[in-house]
Amino acid sequence: MILSALLTSVGINLGLCLLFFTLYSILRKQPGNYAVYAPRLVAQRKSEQRSDFNLERLIPSAGWIRQAWQPSEQELLMGFGLDTVVAMRIFVFGLRVFTFAGIVGIVILLPINYSGNQLSDDDSDLPDISLDSFSISNVEDGSNWLWVHFCAAYALTGVVCYLLYNEYGYISSKIIDYFYASKPLPHQFTVLVRGIPVSVGDSVSEKVGSFFSEFYPTVYLSHSVVRRTSKLHSLINEVKQLRRKLARLKLNGNASNRHKREGFLGIFGRRVNVIDYYEKKLEDLQEQVRMEQSSLAGKEVPAAFVSFKSRLGAATVLHIQQRINPTVWVTEQAPDHKDIHWVFFSTSFLRRFISYVLVVVACIVITILFLIPVAIVQGLTNLEQLETWLPFLKGILRLAFIRQVITGYLPSLILQLFVSLIPPVMIMLSTHQGYVAYSQIEKSACIKVLFFTMWNIFFANALSGSALYQIDVILDPKNIPRVLAEAVPGQASFFIAYVVTSGWTGVSSELFRLLPLISNYCRRLFCKKDDEHVEVPSTPYHSQIPKILVFELLGLTYFFLAPLILPFILIFYCMGYIVYRNQILNVYMSKYETSGKFWPLVHSSTIFSLVLMHVIAIGLFTLKKLPLASALILPLPILTLLFNEYCKRRFLPLFKAYPAECLIKKDKENQNEPTMGEFYDKLATAYEDPALKAREYYGATGTNTSPLLRDTGTS
Amino acid sequence: MILSALLTSVGINLGLCLLFFTLYSILRKQPGNYAVYAPRLVAQRKSEQRSDFNLERLIPSAGWIRQAWQPSEQELLMGFGLDTVVAMRIFVFGLRVFTFAGIVGIVILLPINYSGNQLSDDDSDLPDISLDSFSISNVEDGSNWLWVHFCAAYALTGVVCYLLYNEYGYISSKIIDYFYASKPLPHQFTVLVRGIPVSVGDSVSEKVGSFFSEFYPTVYLSHSVVRRTSKLHSLINEVKQLRRKLARLKLNGNASNRHKREGFLGIFGRRVNVIDYYEKKLEDLQEQVRMEQSSLAGKEVPAAFVSFKSRLGAATVLHIQQRINPTVWVTEQAPDHKDIHWVFFSTSFLRRFISYVLVVVACIVITILFLIPVAIVQGLTNLEQLETWLPFLKGILRLAFIRQVITGYLPSLILQLFVSLIPPVMIMLSTHQGYVAYSQIEKSACIKVLFFTMWNIFFANALSGSALYQIDVILDPKNIPRVLAEAVPGQASFFIAYVVTSGWTGVSSELFRLLPLISNYCRRLFCKKDDEHVEVPSTPYHSQIPKILVFELLGLTYFFLAPLILPFILIFYCMGYIVYRNQILNVYMSKYETSGKFWPLVHSSTIFSLVLMHVIAIGLFTLKKLPLASALILPLPILTLLFNEYCKRRFLPLFKAYPAECLIKKDKENQNEPTMGEFYDKLATAYEDPALKAREYYGATGTNTSPLLRDTGTS
């Protein structure tokens, strides 16, 4: 890619970003869009003031940026939970890393690369200069300037490790503070027990009760057995949808709308009043709900949430294997009760083991299938091949601008479209892996998306070639540094374009929320009045965190290879940070709290990026005929991995369970509080399936939303 | 190697074995050798009857074999502990595997291999037939007979996995039974706490006391802080040696022996009575011991053994991380108090982390250095090279018998000598890794020796070539099946000779105990009377188990490559089993009990052997132009690894800690026993360093062994 193609891409994307930002800053002020741009506030009834029309509403303003900056970390922590703060820290960490990397890269490395003479096409005009002239490829083989790159690799690794260590410690301390500040929460006192062996006719509930009251008589409090409620959940969903439909009909309906024909395809049969028809249907459904609820007593799943009188009691049961056979009576930390995915509650150890294996196989298959779109993208960057495939394009492809758009913009756009299909697929796979909580599913999906994206975007693209060739490379670890060092620098320009297109427009379109905006307009077009129902989306960590981390991977890997990429990534992090603070204040809501469980993932992927950078450095210094540097860089990955090992042992345990010190301190604090009796009463019923408690779907009784509904996570 | 060379080797070794067995069955009956062949019984005063001379004593008999067979497993379990039974089960497992493998190999595979015509030198006389004619190399490329080998690989894998699963389950049940049958033992109630952060002037003891009585007031019982006693231990050892010397002198001394000269080299100075001299020296030493013991109060190590009132209490503290920082107040299961290696008590988390890294580096260095003896061995098998190195040997090397000895016997003997140096080195390395118990050190050394032996005997020998070439192969996993399939079958004859030489003579010389026998004779030659001191050696699991497992590796890997190896391995297992039952009944004594912790190691190394067999099969079927078989064998390693994963989750946890079910059951059982008060009193002092309690080294008091001495493991 030449400089002008890059500038075209930057121009297009910058234009798009500005457009999105401007449109956002106007549209967000229109009262009709509140449900799109501030659903969180609407749900909390904070933005009800529907001001009249005035000119100020049509003028783009940047007030929202100031607003987004306002809340302090402490305020965010208290208002939005620890996960939000951790996600913010990920951006802050990236900003710090790339500020350092950017300064070193642009001020020191870029001039050295540009002043090199290794590449022959150096004498062309500035717009026609290949981006490779800014990369390390342009430095002469064996040049002593390469030692600057060598030092930069050591310096950046040191800085990143220092920042990582600090950040790990900081987040750890936040986790402890957050725990100390929390009031007693049901999940702190509860353990999920799975794989309870029962013979036919046995009652799971009795078995659990007798086991824990025999073994832990002093701390055992109560338990709730899980029941097979998937049918009930879908019935209740139907009831809810029907109720909403009815409410809308009653509000908006005109005469023509209020009648429909019964019978086959609505052609035959008599015309009936629609409202009567749906009310009849609703009654039938409610009767079914009642029947299903009453028949659930026999549908026990061999799993139960067991609550204890103290946090230490729950921790004891959690950490010690209960039975001689470790595949039965398996204990695990109970998730937040709002976080439980009741519908898919797999229990048997063996079944979960098999699902795990199958999901891994499915992920591999998806990764292999994904090479098809990657091949298409590679076809686009190779214009000659495209001309032979589609000869009628020859004429168009001769236009310089079209060429620049096709090589600089289209490939990453197409790739991005395909990549955006992956997170939902991975969520679906994780759901079938036997997790019981949304947060676990989301974290597992996050890891899958991250692996997938790293593999496909980075490796499959950088090691452009057939799948077999890639497997060949991976199965030949000795050659990996050489192969990477040969392939990766040449892809720098593609990745710069990728960062600009996918990162910048990704962030700004995330802000703009095009699809929700369109669906909102449609809804308002067809409904006369709002039905007041606002869906607050849950923060999509599983798709956002991998994206941030992939850009970090690109930034760190290309740090000394092609420092030109660094400012673009820095801008991405800046934009991301602002937009995220804004995605959080107005739009998204964390439906559950994982207490920063995402951070270790960030840590390990950063370490991976660093080691990858070192591996490429080893190969590169060999290619550049500086074998001494190649040998001297060897200790760096080893030290980095040792650092990682140390951090894992030093900090990771806290992300898995609270230490006795904290548990006992909190237990003692609560011991003599008069409210604890009330809390225990609440605790005893906290882990009942909301579908079982939802008596308002029985028919006869109330018609509107009830507090119990919130338990299913629809607020 | 040709058949006659193998027969020479078998002949030599069989002769040696018979000689050892015969000598053993005579020598064991001589009263003077009781200390060598039955030290365990002597120590237990069971073989004190010193019969007069009779002819029967000079006739070899096989009564000891019958004797070794007599005790049932239950008797062994009760008398010798679980480790002994597990070690026996390892032999039984090997016997079962190789009985099946041997039958399939000899009855089915060997005839198929021998009837093949791939190798051209098939028409020579029987004694000159190359052993390769019995290996798979002799089967024609692409022959359908290879499908028999294919089926055999599946069948053996199935049988081995079935046996492994059964054995894992059986040993698990034994562990539980053994635990239930045990009386209250101090280590069941105790936890070792390391890394207690103390500032200067703080008392560790006070800190530990206040921490546990604040956090676990209901279950905490007592604690003993560890002190730096390495100097004291060495002083006490000196005292013990001096006392033994004095006792011997008093018993045996004649006039000339009773005097020595004082002063420089004993030349100048006056003659003094030796006994007076040593008694004076002993007094000095005892004074030093007293001084050192009284000064230890200030030499606290930031580690303590903390005892609790119940097993569940100890388990709670063990399993839950105590402090926010997981690198301080680190808890681990307290080893049996007889098992503690007091001298080298490293405590800091960081120091242990660093030692671990350094030990790994040292192991790698040793492995690389070991290639030198391996190269020598390879020189011996290559006679032409030997002739060019040492031309004067030319004449001798032309004698057929010498050639056979050199190619068939010497290489494995030399290798075996070098290999026998490794276990003590590995024990030394493991000692510096921060383990606190002999059993942990031994297990860690066992793993190191196993890795080392597998690598050096199998890989370095099979992949004969430079170290760089080997690293090349390992760094190129894709090619491993091919390289192994090319290299391994050709080494079959070497390994058959190795099994015969190293295995058979190893086992029989283990029985014969040549070195202890010689040292015993020397002692009896120079001392007129026995000083009644019998050292009972501790079972050397760290060197025996790796040996057994390496033969298993060889047997499984060569199962279908060269089935000729199987009967030799089967004989090794038979001999080993008998001799082991005998080294156990009479000679060795387990000084501590690990409750079968060695079994998981056997399991994983068996899985490794199976997968290695599959990998070689993949390469081999490709080489033999049967790619379909090569592809169809692929699921086998995957299924085997999944089986391994399942077994790990199903059984492994029990080998790490007892489940709550067992702990609570035992706690309840003991709850109301009147003896528990007494036990608690004993528990409070059980984990005091024996060097601190050993008041008899103070001088003045008693001179003979006291019960406290047993605590240091010298019985």
TrEMBL record, chains A, B:
Residues 357-621 form the CSC1/OSCA1-like 7TM region domain. Its main location: membrane. Residues 232-295 form a coiled coil. The keyword Membrane applies. Keywords: Calcium, Coiled coil, Ion channel, Ion transport, Membrane, Transmembrane, Transmembrane helix, Transport. One of its GO terms (molecular function) is calcium-activated cation channel activity. It is a multi-pass membrane protein. GO terms for cellular component: plasma membrane. The chain crosses the membrane at residues 6-27, 90-112, 145-165, 353-381, 401-429, 449-471, 556-580, 601-622, 628-647. It comes from the Eukaryota. Residues 188-342 form the CSC1/OSCA1-like cytosolic domain. Residues 5-167 form the CSC1/OSCA1-like N-terminal transmembrane domain. It is found in: Membrane. Belongs to the CSC1 (TC 1.A.17) family. This is Uncharacterized protein. It comes from Punica granatum.
